[in-house]
Amino acid sequence: MSISIALTKGRIEKEVIKILEKSNFGIDELKNKGRKLVFNDTKEDIKYFLVKANDTVTYVEHGVADIAIVGKDTLLEREEDYYEVLDLGLGKCKFIVAALPDSNIFNNGGHIKIASKYPTVTKKYFQSRGMDVEVIKIEGSVELAPILGISNAIVDIMETGTTLKENGLIVLAEICDISTRVIINKSSFKLKSNEINRFLNKIRRCIK
Ligand code: PRP
């Protein structure tokens, strides 16, 4: 049976393609992709789609992708019904709370506003610290929010720390580590267990 795999565009795309290549999948089409959206493996009965992180989870949820390769940041933001089976150990970064140096949100009473692309993660984290904050959803370049004064701090992912540094923000707290994970649609795992295990074993041998 054929399997389909949703891959995340952007930040982790190159590293994931490298792992697929090392694991001996036929990813020539993915390497020369142009504007195509669906790619056939040239060695195995596998189709790949390249989509935005959130969409990989949606496709797995609806069973049109059997497998997705996606960051833990996206999975933490939308805890849904799939199996998370493997940590690829790449795309490593952290969820952090950051702000301008003079703002001390943890020792300040009063109304605190936090900007983030990740409202669920943000709410949960501040709830766990017993703080009731207002969360403002921002789609990108979240570092701008405290600079423009729309929020007191941000919750975002930090990889090298360069974006924070270049915009004069500092880390106030680390929330958790993030890396790239493999998730599987629950029914696919039963119906296509041979094909899915074959895929996972090839990847496992390569990342060991
Ligand atoms: C992410 C994140 C930070 C930056 C962190 O944004 O939101 O802005 O990367 O990386 P660094 O610590 O290595 O500087 P991304 O590039 O994915 O784009 P976005 O801000 O438009 O979401």
TrEMBL record:
Species this chain originates from: Clostridium celatum DSM 1785
GO molecular function: ATP binding; ATP phosphoribosyltransferase activity
Residues of the ATP phosphoribosyltransferase catalytic domain: 52-204
Domain statement: Lacks the C-terminal regulatory region which is replaced by HisZ.
Protein name, per record: ATP phosphoribosyltransferase
Classification via PANTHER family: ATP PHOSPHORIBOSYLTRANSFERASE, ATP PHOSPHORIBOSYLTRANSFERASE ATP-PRTASE
Oligomer and partners: Heteromultimer composed of HisG and HisZ subunits.
Keywords noted in UniProt: Amino-acid biosynthesis, ATP-binding, Cytoplasm, Glycosyltransferase, Histidine biosynthesis, Nucleotide-binding, Transferase
Listed pathway(s): Amino-acid biosynthesis; L-histidine biosynthesis; L-histidine from 5-phospho-alpha-D-ribose 1-diphosphate: step 1/9
TM regions (residue ranges): none
GO terms for cellular component: cytoplasm
